[in-house]
Amino acid sequence: MQKRWVVFSTMLLVVAMLAACSAAAPAAAPAAEAEAEAAVPSISEESKVAERVVEINYDLPGEGQADAVFIVGRGGDSVLLDSGSVTDGESAMVIQEIAEPLVRQEGISTKPIPWLAESWETEDSQTWIFHLRQGVTFHDGTPFNAEAVKWNIDRWRNPDNEWRFGRTFEYYDSEFGTDTAIEEVNIIDDYTIELVLAQPSSVLLAKLSLSFVFGMNSPTAVMEQGDVYGTPAGGAVGTGPYKFVEWVPDDRIVLERNEDWWGEGPYLSRLIFRSIPDNSARFAELQAGTIHQANTVAQTDLPAADADPNITVNILPSTSTGYIAFQQCIEPFDKIEVRKAIAHAVNWGALIEPFYGKYGELAGSFQPPAILGHNPDIQPYEYNPELAKELLAEAGLPDGFETEFWYIPVVRGYFPDSKAIAEAIAADLARVGIRVNLMTEDWGAYLEHRNEGAFPMWMLGWGSDNGDPDNYLGWHFGHPVGEPRVEDCYANDRVAELLIEGRIEADPAVREKIYQEAEQLIHDDVARISVVWASTPWVLRSNVRNYTPVVFRSWYDHVWIEE
Amino acid sequence: MSTTANAQVAALNEIMVPGQSRSLMSDAWRRLLSSWNGRVGLVMITITILIGVLAPVVWPYDPYTDSNLAESRMSPSLQHPFGTDRLGRDMLRRIVHGTRVSLLIGFVVVFASGAVGILLGLFAGYFGKAVDSVIMRLMDILLAFPAILLAIAIVAVRGPSLENTMIAVGVVSVPGYARVVRSIVLSVRERDYIDAARMIGVSHGRIMFVHILPNSLSPIIVQMTLGVGSAILFAAALGFLGLGVQPPIPEWGAMISDAIPFLRQSPYLVFFPGMAIMLTVLGFNLLGDGLRDALDPQLRK
Prior knowledge:
The complex is a heterodimer of chains A (563) and B (301). Chain A is an alpha+beta fold. Chain A has 16 helices and 21 strands. Chain A has helices at 2-24, 89-98, 146-157, 170-176, 204-208, 219-225, 279-288, 302-307, 336-345, 349-356, 385-394, 418-431, 443-452, 473-477, 493-504, 508-524, and strands at 68-74, 103-105, 112-114, 117-122, 127-132, 182-189, 192-197, 242-248, 252-257, 268-275, 293-294, 311-314, 320-326, 360-362, 401-406, 434-439, 457-463, 528-534, 538-541, 544-545, 560-561. In chain A, helix 9 (336-345) runs antiparallel to helix 11 and helix 15 packs antiparallel against helix 16 (508-524). The relative contact order of chain A is 0.16. With 301 residues, chain B is mainly α. Chain B is 72% helix and 0% strand. Chain B contains twelve helices and no strands. The two termini of chain B are 15 Å apart. Classes of the chains: A alpha+beta (563), B mainly alpha (301). Chains A and B meet through helix 1, helix 10, helix 12 and strand 16 of A and helix 10, helix 11 and helix 12 of B.
């Protein structure tokens, strides 16, 4: 008798444990990746032109309200606080409060504005002269001057630099590549510096405004700390509004106000980033008011967030796209009819309501409307299984075919429930005879194999880093003329030329035309299927003032809390 | 003391009195049916197996083309007694068809790992010495890894699929059978009739398979019955971790893990597959318990 109960209760325990484990399971560790969660630089829909200026009227805190402690709850810990050498969003959001770039984007627009550089001049977009802000010092007292800027730039661009400690500077490599690399850095005087590029680039300022990448570290601090710089044992030293205090791994990073900051503010005495991996636990803390901001709120909690008067949900126009891609050098995806058949076989529109609610829109062109060069003439593919079957027959595959379809193993704004979305797509494909085997693997391996072109068909997405189309269309379809891309084997000489032109052209109106033409060609080639333009909601306590809801540049220098 | 003696007399009478003798198996069957847990377990398992066998005949289902996003996550209703999942698929139907998958895993794993484990245990127990040491140390190595980690490692190397789930669960189950069988063989081989068989020159193989194995069956049957339940639970755990049977094939563990994000909004999505796992495993455990009681000579009345 006794044994029976042991067996029975053990079983209940196991079932209970199955249920309990689950809570922690979906909160996958944030991988260091370039596909970082929707990087949303906010641009309103009226204008797609990067030069637009948005006035923000910051209201100032009243007496005694400028000393609050602000706590951000987020899904994972930072990887490293060394600007330039990390690509993950969790590191980025802390870094940019500590280290500042030469140029920053204004408010919620993408307009580059003077920051540590007060002004700049260029005649040919190849040689740039920056005049630096005077009287700025790093948190450790090191003066900020042309010497320090040159030291930082040399560290990004030179793989043999002795202060890299084996770290890579991927963003510098991908943004500047070899064609627009910074060839020379010349100190003209203490507060004037000259950059010479390998070839003219109109987007230099947009690139440099990636503040978490091109923020200035204190040369003395890096050289003194050595390879512990940026780690919990070391910390980070910049010129920013907040100073590094402590980092308890997987728990919290504490910053405090830099009383000597050159700018206006900051109005918070401390800024704390807490790691709360469990989505529902993080949301519960926001509801309880123990944190002021919850990054990534599960879609299922959003209705509760909307209903809570103490919580504000900010939705920004989408700057991210979820897409389906194909390896176009292998059968049967080398045939455009097959790619088109897939585009027409799936009811893409039906995915939006159950999986995205109001945080997603059925995509037409690859770039969402808020990105320069979005082509409004491109409509989503019509759901037409009969047409899909005809196209398959035309391709010589009347009975369909079998292939692998890889889905992402993580939760992303553009694919919040990738497995279920993949299953829905697979079911639609099976109805026209295309049998896909759903596959996935560890996130790091997934991105690596994607880069190597190992997947026949896969899903992924992109969130803009800076709102520039070179970081969007250019990143995904740019390739040297006559040389196919590795990941998907896509090659179209005209697209290649256009994307190179777009990088050099300075006039936004001309650039818009260039990117729109490229969008059309890419659409005609069915190079990829754009599924959704997703928006990431930013969820905060309602008493937070002056918050600029943009993840990669969510400034806290103006933020204060109304008590 | 006297009760034991009485029991022995009674047992002797059963054998000695002509016309009243019963075989071990029919005797066990009678006692299984007379016990509460045996009866309940038997009924539960019979129903489960019937569902698993008849489902494709009575209620055919193609998981590959099943989706209806317009009916995503509907609460239980007359039309969908168990509700629908995120893709609008009928949960009752998926759970019913998931029965096949779970039973298949349970039985295949038990017969495969049972066969291997029994052979290893038989050899180890019968030959002893070096053979015993080598086999049992190998089993100890397998046991030294936490079972779920070992299974995850196997799946990680071979890739997640139905076959690999069965292989992983099977491999981690082998040592259990080997140890049980070895311990029985160690006692059975010392019996006088084994010595007698050896003396008249019966071969090792014949002694092992004809004389020892049949006399060791009772605990093995119990172990295997309980093993079906634990194999199903194990496969569900792998499925829950996303390492088991791959979508869209309906598997209970994977169904639970898919539903976890909606625990608060749609708890039925977790509840029904969870109940399916619990009832099936409970059925096998009750049956195994009943069999243990029925087959144990110590408990003969």
